[in-house]
Structures are given as C-alpha cells and as structure tokens.
Amino acid sequence: MVGNILLFNQVTKEGEIVGVDRKRYYFHIGEWLSCSSIKIGQKVYYEIVDDEARNIIIDEPLIKKYIVHLKIDVSIVD
Question: I want to staple 53 with a disulfide (CB 3.0 to 4.6 A). Which of 1, 22, 27, 34 is the partner?
Fold first, then answer.
C-alpha cells in the first residue's frame, strides 16, 4: 500500500501513516526498513498486518554494500 507519514514521536519511536484509503495505520520504528530517517509527509510503501503498517520503505535507490570475507587454508605437504 502507499501512504504518507502523518506523525512520528522520537521518544516512543512510534508513528502513524495515512494511506491512500484515508485510514490511519500505526507503526513502530522496528518496521522501518529504509536507510533514510523518517520525515513527516514522506511517501512510503508498506504492508498492512492486523491494521498496522509493516515492512515500511521509501522510494530510494537501493545501495548495496558487500563485504567479502576470505579464508585461506594452507597445508604444507612434504
């Protein structure tokens, strides 16, 4: 679903989204999946589960960082 951030409380880390259906959906910061900070009025995409917003993202370029861990086993054979 698509909506906009209606309010967000920095202390409680809770907020509300108003959807295109004009309904309000509660969310907690734990459902925020984007790297950017939450801004009032911001357009978001989310799922609705039990009348709450879940898996909230904004339309942002995906930035992927890769960390490569290399393990080398060395054996000496006589």
Answer: 27
